[in-house]
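Hi P.,

Sorry for the delay on this. The queue was packed all week, but I finally got your sequence through. Input first:
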Amino acid sequence: MTNGDDTGISVQPADDDGTVRLSGALTIRTVTEVRNQLKALDPSTLRRIDLSSVSRLDTAGAWVLLSLNRGAETGQIAFTGASAEAESLLNSVQQALPKPEAPPAHDSSFSAWLGQFGQRVYSGLMFLRALTGYLGIFLHRLVRAIRHPSEFKLTSLVHHCEEVGLKAVPIVALMAFLIGVVLAFQGSTQLRQFGAEVFVVDLIAISILRELGILLTAIIVAGRTASAFTAAIGSMKMREEIDAMRTLGLDPGMNLFVPRILALLIMLPILGLIANIAGLFGGALMAWIDLGISPAMFTTRLVEGTAVSHVFVGLIKAPVFAMIIGVVGCHAGMQVQSNAESLGRMTSNAVVTAIFAVIVADAVFSIFFARIGI
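Then the structure:
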């Protein structure tokens, strides 16, 4: 920066050789005026800028000159007459300006596509391996808790049972009730065409008891519980509380994973049973209103036409779904880095992954039960 008066600046238009002469102080107070005047000049006539009469130059003025001089690297505009100090300042600002990054080259060949596909498959396998590892940690710590009950936190288990189970009862019951109403209404509309309205009871019972009751319950629990597990454990990871636990000799697997996943294993079958009851109640209510099937007739048809195996087929899925939701939520929480963006991303990933895995597991169960004839 050169010393001098900084009260004003004047810009002399380009002469025959394309030289624009600046005189006065080119500082933060005058940069707007200089920039407007330089932009008003014809770019084709501008070849060089004479700074010999500039009495004062600061970083703001240097930035205006360099931002205007977009073709400086190709030599279209040159700065002349600058003092050694001004030249040094221009060079420093030039080095500090951000350099545009060239977009990565996109290879659309088959080999590139095959390589990307292989990387995604490998990443998926590594993710499954990580989930399997966390499942192993849970099972190992659970066995250790059974062998050494003093290490198990019963208070934590009760707390998580309340969080994942008791507080989820209203939304699960309401959801199942509405699903029963919708099934009864849609089923009656279709079966009425064939005079087979009474079979709406079988439709409701098999759909809810075998598939929809436990599946939709697991999806709701995955949405509210997997995200809660990830947020809680991820927040502890961000605040380095898990590192502090390890320093104090406390095992995160025993204190964080086991109570949460075990609470899901206990409460999800109960929530599934509540969903079944609420769904049947909603279906019975709609069948009574729309078809005139009395509650006594609905109950009789339900007992006579629905095998108990349908109930067990639905509820036997609950522990598997609970294990999937719990392991995914705990794994995602442990992957959170030390920033809020990572916490939000992993919470979202946990919900999506848990719901997707539950639906895939339900499809596998359906195929399995169909194959063995249940």
